[in-house]
Amino acid sequence: xxxxxxxxxxxxxxxxxxxxxxxxxxxxxxxxxxxxxxxxxxxxxxxxxxxxxxxxxxxxxxxxxxxxxxxxxxxxxxxxxxxxxxxxxxxxxxxxxxxxxxxxxxxxxxxxxxxxxxxxxxxx
Length: 124
Hints:
This protein has strands spanning 3-7, 10-13, 18-25, 32-39, 46-51, 58-60, 68-73, 78-83, 92-100, 113-114, 118-123. Helices cover 0% and strands 51% of the residues.
């Protein structure tokens, strides 16, 4: 059973950076995709970035492309989300997720394992 634990959230001023981590425990294989989602108060959860760890392909929402980078460290079995040039509208709870044989890479219904979330707050 795959389990995910996020860390690295916090408060930062606009223009700043944060790096989120998602520690993966349990067995994953070449069918797995990993992703980051976020949910702001009063809004629906949205996909931010996804990665296929076994091939390295990455996928980004238009709102974060060029500012956020998703990566996977095989040795640590950890997924990272490097967030630069943060904006107040990036404020949200960020969740790590795992799914198998994912077709819609930023679609939350494709992912069936979720972490508990880590809060990111960006002040203007």
